[in-house]
Amino acid sequence: MVRRSGRRPGNQDTRQSILESARTVFAEQGFDKGSIRAIATQAEVDPALVHHYFGTKEKLFLATMDAPVDPGSLVTEALDGPRDEAGVRLVRLVLSVWDSPAGVAALAMLRSAMSNEWAARLLREFVVTQILRRAVAQLGIDEREAPLRSALVATQIAGLAVVRYVLKVEPVASAPAEQLVATVGPNVQRYLTGDL
Amino acid sequence: MVRRSGRRPGNQDTRQSILESARTVFAEQGFDKGSIRAIATQAEVDPALVHHYFGTKEKLFLATMDAPVDPGSLVTEALDGPRDEAGVRLVRLVLSVWDSPAGVAALAMLRSAMSNEWAARLLREFVVTQILRRAVAQLGIDEREAPLRSALVATQIAGLAVVRYVLKVEPVASAPAEQLVATVGPNVQRYLTGDL
Asked: Which domains can be identified in chain A, with CATH numbers?
């Protein structure tokens, strides 16, 4: 255990401990209210050490999103395969990330985006522009249709996350992932490649 | 205009002014942070007058949701008609409410539900149990399937609201309502009556 005012051991354990504390604090308090100080306290390290490892709070926030998964490459991977099953694979990916430890960070990001314009812009730009549109392009969809199709996919993915993980509406909250993959996947598929 | 420390005229204008201020304050600050004092200041009335007209903050919050629309009867109305166009009518109703002045209150409720367990429970119980399940029952759907179908409808409706009004992802944010009715309606229809 690293003492709060002790030496600064430059090891992976400390970095990992800060990341885990950041996930917890951001999830509980959102991006705005979750302070570096609160994260440092939770990790039992000096606040300066948090800055040393991650720089700004924004970078730390992104780090909690990137670790342990890289959403961009995961989505690219999920969409690689039979075109008419891309929707099913995308929903399966989303649920596997949200049901994993990374889901806590994703939830924090979604919560922040609901009340904070900066976080909303981050989520909008990062998820939609960087991930979904690139992914839609990968499916060989008309570039003129890609923005609408990816935004529609975003409505279903965001809503699934809100209902399952935030509002916790049954039976969606407790349903096995594969049941939701089977029921929601075809709707995402229509947005991706279907007749609109 | 009613002065903050003036007499207490028991008229509709004052009540309406408080309601409008409450919608604005809840939308900007959420349910938790939006105080009776802030609402009274915005409406230029004494805080005691807010309590006089609406009782608790919870009751005021519900009043901002109920006025000027009654979601329950609107949904029942929207689902009354050809069964295979219920999805389209439901999306049209949702967009017409969110695009109206009542949308500000709906947005406040959604934001509160994202960060506050009380508001999440309220939204869950009110929207899903009272509105959607009753509405699904109205379509003559098997009672055993109704909870899953209504929760799935909730994923699409909640996600549409989040992407159009909170994250403001284009082109969904600026799309004419009827374009979204045509593109999203069939997906809601599948959740309501389609093969899952």
From this structure: 12-64 (1.10.10.60), 71-193 (1.10.357.10)
